[in-house]
Design a protein that fits this description.
6-stranded mixed beta sheet; Rossmann fold; single chain; about 30% helix; alpha/beta
Length: about 375
């Protein structure tokens, strides 16, 4: 009789806990994912924080936390993971009553892009591990990975030439009565700007800075058209890196920058255009646009963009075109810029085995940028 009663009690306990867990297992259960930063550059390292909180007097003997992320986020710990077209993680843990658990998952930002985690699946069980319960938790987690900054010698040579041209044009139009400060001497500075008193104090040549009388600026034009059906993704990515690095360098030298591309945004599927601006917040805006370019989408022709820019141009900005695309209509468009006295530079990222013959009348304004062929 006692055995029967004990069995009945166990059966009742089992059924009761099953009902209670089925109804309340995820009440007070909070699962949050967060990145240590909401943006980074290619190659940089960040952390993904996984926080599980159980705010009730019911222990959770087993909780499985599942989420999906891009495989371009290269996690250090690959246990409980499956990597195919995406990175799939399945963490298994126990969470006692009123307990908070926090895990840190380190990863490397392998590639430029805009990454999201929009849901977490939580799977729990009752005390006897006999039944699984599933809950889907919506997330709004985003990470922008900005293009890597270029530091190679060939970029330095190209950029020094462009910067010297831009700043010389500014210096020509400086207002001598508007003193702005003192900085180190650069090769393109005229000797009349040297501050001999400051130079004697520091032992290095220093020059006076004056406010410009004209609004000299730079307009970066990023064309992601390709001439063949073959998709040279490495050339597109290097073009995007060039745009980011040029913006970074010019803004760092106090030159306002605007940006236009026919590359399509991964969210709204439209080309990006950012008006003239300066400062760190403006650099972030440009990099956000670059991070969100989806190179898998078919881009519109760039010539109409260029024509519109020329027609609506009211300032004295220098155009910096980045494009591997080198059809005859592009050369004709560059000639039009020269005829209208619009200063421009054209950077052409190409593999070493790709041909490029710049017309003699345009060679002074065109730079070939050598890109190592990806394996």
């Amino acid at each position: 009789m006692n055995t029967v009663l004990a069995l009945l009690a166990i059966a009742l306990l089992y059924l009761l806990q099953k009902v209670l867990y089925g109804r309340y297992w995820d009440k007070g259960l909070d699962i949050r994912l967060s990145f240590s930063e909401n943006h980074a550059r290619e190659g940089e390292r960040l952390n993904l924080y996984e926080t599980i909180t159980n705010r009730k007097a019911m222990p959770l003997p087993v909780v499985k936390v599942k989420f999906e992320a891009s495989r371009e986020l290269i996690f250090d710990d690959t246990t409980n993971t499956n990597i195919s077209d995406h990175f799939y993680r399945n963490d298994i843990l126990s969470c006692l009553m009123y307990q908070k658990i926090r895990r840190t998952l380190g990863f490397k930002c392998g590639k430029r892009g805009y990454y999201t985690i929009d849901r977490v699946d939580a799977v729990g069980s009752d005390l006897f591990l006999s039944t699984n319960f599933v809950s889907v938790l919506p997330m709004q987690l985003t990470l922008s990975v900005y293009p890597k900054l270029l530091t190679d010698k060939q970029f330095d040579i190209i950029y020094t030439t462009m910067l010297g041209n831009t700043l010389t044009r500014r210096l020509i139009n400086e207002d001598p009565f508007e003193f702005r400060g003192i900085r180190e001497y650069q090769p393109f500075d005229p000797m009349k700007s040297v501050n001999y008193k400051a130079s004697a104090k520091t032992g290095e040549l220093k020059v006076n800075q004056h406010a410009p009388t004209s609004d000299e600026s730079v307009h970066i034009l990023l064309n992601l058209e390709q001439e063949t059906i073959w998709q040279f993704t490495d050339l597109l990515e290097e073009s995007i890196r060039l745009a980011s690095t040029i913006a970074y360098e010019y803004l760092g030298n106090g030159v306002p920058v605007s940006f236009t591309t026919n590359g399509l945004d991964i969210i709204n599927k439209k080309p990006s255009k950012i008006a003239d601006g300066s400062g760190s917040s403006h650099e972030i805006s440009i990099n956000e646009a670059l991070a969100r370019i989806d190179t898998k989408l078919t881009v519109p022709s760039f010539i109409p963009f260029l024509q519109e820019i020329v027609e609506n141009r009211t300032g004295s900005d220098t155009l910096v075109l980045i494009s591997s695309f080198q059809r005859n209509d592009f050369f004709d468009a560059m000639r039009t810029l020269k005829e209208e006295n619009i200063p421009f530079f054209w950077i052409v990222p190409l593999h070493d085995d790709m041909e490029f013959d710049a017309p003699d009348d345009l060679k002074a304004d065109i730079f070939r940028y050598h890109v190592a062929k990806s394996m």
